[in-house]
């Protein structure tokens, strides 16, 4: 039998949120030491969870299956029910029986009638112990065989790293352990691209014998993944999987992705992994995303502890087909033959968006294929917002589906900059205006500044007053009065109409302290004269204050840039039309990386 999807259980190194894996009732508990569910009579394990729901829309319709079955491993007498849920219909019970499990003989459930390619909806198992001492140690959904008319994918997993020696070494160890037991280990190759090679990763990794590592100049994620793609193609891979070095994930990600690519009807199929933040491991950050003026994550905020929300998300996900859908490079697997455009030299931020949109991939998401990593809100800085604004403008200048008028494109930059100005982040706003000017220099600017070294130094100097400081050095006293005590609705309108008090002689005198996970919300700064932001670990903070002179100086600069952008828009579009194409070729990166 060919495993499609194995049952996942909590892993304290990755995620211990039980509700993502199974819902327990009665005398049932997850044993971390045995990695199994221990149940007394009447205890129940229900697998209608994000990582264990089985999507018929995704697997039965998207893949060539040779039948379908479910298997359960463990020991004891177990009441087993399989439920079929479809949108707009009552849930149907498609299997119900009492089975006896032994360590030597798993229970096998015949679900062939649901594998004909016409079935939709979701399947999940409900397991009830019929006797004390029942144990469920695992299970899977499986099909009989692989298609005989196509070769197996030759997958290269490419990890780009920079100054994260400990993290990447641990990921490599886990990959080695997983692949040693994987049925298709001979078809999967792992490589690490070390940008800058400052941590000596290549020598340490290659000494282990199973992983290939490459020194690479620090050209950011774009340069690292471009190198990874070149090496994967040179090694004869049919598919490449891009992964970040700061993401933690179940190795089941690799197993599900590989077999899905092997069975997919469409040879252009790509798999985009979802992302959950380490701050709240029960909440979805995004499961796929689309782009139009800004990044629009799909299913952001879904509470993965709630079965109703998870089921609604899982039913909707296979039917989302937006023309500007993209996959993040924390986990993105794609067919190399479908690549017509290599990464644009963004350094970081936006390279994954552009790569997805410039190539005709059929991007899919799979339940449970997810990475856990640091919150983007936590990472936000003047530098990341500089990079974000650059990439947002370039997407609209290069991707046909995103073409806008001059003013429509300028509105993207105006929105970004105003968000910073209204939150008193004047230094960040100045950096963003510099980003806009840099985009207006044309695509040659990105090649000339491909390592971002000069710009990074400039940005650091410009935004020093908005850098994190040890919390003991920051005044965190808080005083709310006037506008800051009004209702949310009243503060919202007051803040917008008065530009957060900048156009009034007295614009609110409160001193506020704002948690980092609310820093992106402009309204949190409305009515304050001073705002202090504090990080998740409560060990760093910084303070910004209203400054009308800086505000209007930057507003005037923004107005002049808007006029210049509109004046030069046609020539700028023509410049990017030619320059973008020449800087997204295989030959461009071979020349830049010295592999021509």
From TrEMBL:
Organism expressing this protein natively: Ruegeria sp. PR1b
Protein name, as recorded: RB106
Keywords associated with the record: Plasmid
Domain of life, source organism: Bacteria
InterPro entries xref list: Nucleotide-diphossugar_trans
SUPFAM superfamilies reported in the protein's UniProt record: Nucleotide-diphospho-sugar transferases
Upper classification of the organism: Bacteria, Pseudomonadati, Pseudomonadota, Alphaproteobacteria, Rhodobacterales
């Amino acid at each position: 039998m060919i495993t499609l999807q194995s049952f996942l259980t909590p892993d304290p190194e990755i995620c211990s949120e039980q509700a993502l894996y199974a819902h327990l009732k009665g005398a049932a508990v997850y044993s971390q030491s045995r990695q199994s569910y221990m149940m007394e009579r009447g205890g129940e394990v229900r697998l209608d969870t994000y990582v264990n729901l089985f999507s018929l829309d995704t697997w039965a319709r998207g893949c060539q299956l040779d039948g379908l079955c479910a298997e359960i491993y463990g020991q004891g007498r177990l009441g087993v029910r399989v439920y079929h849920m479809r949108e707009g219909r009552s849930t149907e019970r498609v299997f119900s029986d009492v089975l006896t499990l032994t360590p030597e003989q798993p229970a096998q459930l015949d679900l062939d009638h649901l594998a004909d390619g016409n079935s939709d909806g979701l399947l999940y198992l409900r397991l009830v112990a019929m006797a004390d001492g029942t144990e469920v140690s695992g299970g899977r959904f499986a099909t009989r065989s692989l298609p005989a008319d196509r070769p197996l994918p030759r997958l290269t997993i490419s990890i780009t790293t920079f100054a994260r020696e400990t993290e990447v070494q641990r990921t490599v160890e886990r990959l080695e352990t997983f692949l040693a037991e994987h049925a298709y280990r001979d078809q999967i190759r792992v490589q690490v691209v070390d940008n800058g090679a400052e941590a000596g990763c290549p020598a340490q990794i290659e000494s282990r014998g199973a992983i290939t590592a490459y020194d690479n100049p620090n050209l950011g994620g774009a340069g690292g993944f471009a190198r990874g793609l070149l090496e994967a193609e040179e090694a004869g891979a049919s598919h490449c999987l891009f992964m970040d070095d700061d993401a933690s994930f179940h190795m089941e990600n690799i197993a599900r992705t590989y077999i899905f690519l092997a069975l997919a009807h469409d040879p252009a199929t790509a798999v985009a992994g979802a992302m959950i933040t380490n701050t709240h491991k029960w909440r979805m950050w995004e499961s796929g995303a689309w782009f139009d003026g800004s990044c629009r994550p799909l299913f952001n905020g879904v509470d993965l502890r709630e079965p109703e929300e998870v089921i609604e998300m899982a039913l909707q996900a296979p039917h989302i087909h937006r023309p500007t859908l993209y996959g993040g490079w924390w986990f993105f697997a794609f067919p190399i033959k479908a690549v017509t455009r290599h990464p644009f030299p963004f350094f970081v931020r936006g390279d994954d968006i552009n790569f997805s949109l410039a190539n005709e991939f059929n991007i899919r998401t799979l339940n449970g294929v997810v990475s856990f990593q640091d919150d983007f809100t936590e990472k936000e800085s003047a530098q990341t917002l500089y990079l974000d604004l650059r990439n947002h403008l370039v997407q609209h200048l290069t991707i046909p589906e995103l073409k806008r008028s001059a003013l429509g494109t300028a509105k993207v930059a105006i929105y970004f900059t105003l968000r910073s100005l209204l939150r008193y982040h004047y230094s960040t706003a100045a950096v963003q205006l510099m980003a806009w000017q840099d985009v207006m220099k044309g695509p040659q600017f990105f090649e000339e500044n491909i390592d971002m070294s000069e710009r990074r130094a400039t940005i650091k100097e410009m935004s020093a007053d908005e850098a994190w400081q040890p919390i003991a050095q920051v005044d965190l006293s808080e005083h709310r009065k006037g506008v800051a005590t009004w209702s949310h609705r009243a503060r919202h309108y007051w803040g917008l109409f008065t530009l957060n008090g900048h156009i009034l002689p007295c614009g609110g005198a409160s001193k506020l302290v704002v948690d980092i996970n609310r820093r992106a919300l402009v309204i949190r700064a409305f009515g304050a004269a001073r705002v202090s932001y504090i990080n998740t670990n409560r060990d760093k903070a910084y303070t910004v204050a209203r400054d009308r002179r800086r505000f209007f100086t930057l507003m005037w600069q923004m107005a002049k840039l808007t006029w210049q952008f509109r004046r030069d828009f046609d020539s700028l579009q023509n410049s990017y039309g030619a320059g973008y194409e020449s800087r997204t070729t295989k030959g461009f990166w071979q020349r830049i990386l010295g592999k021509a």
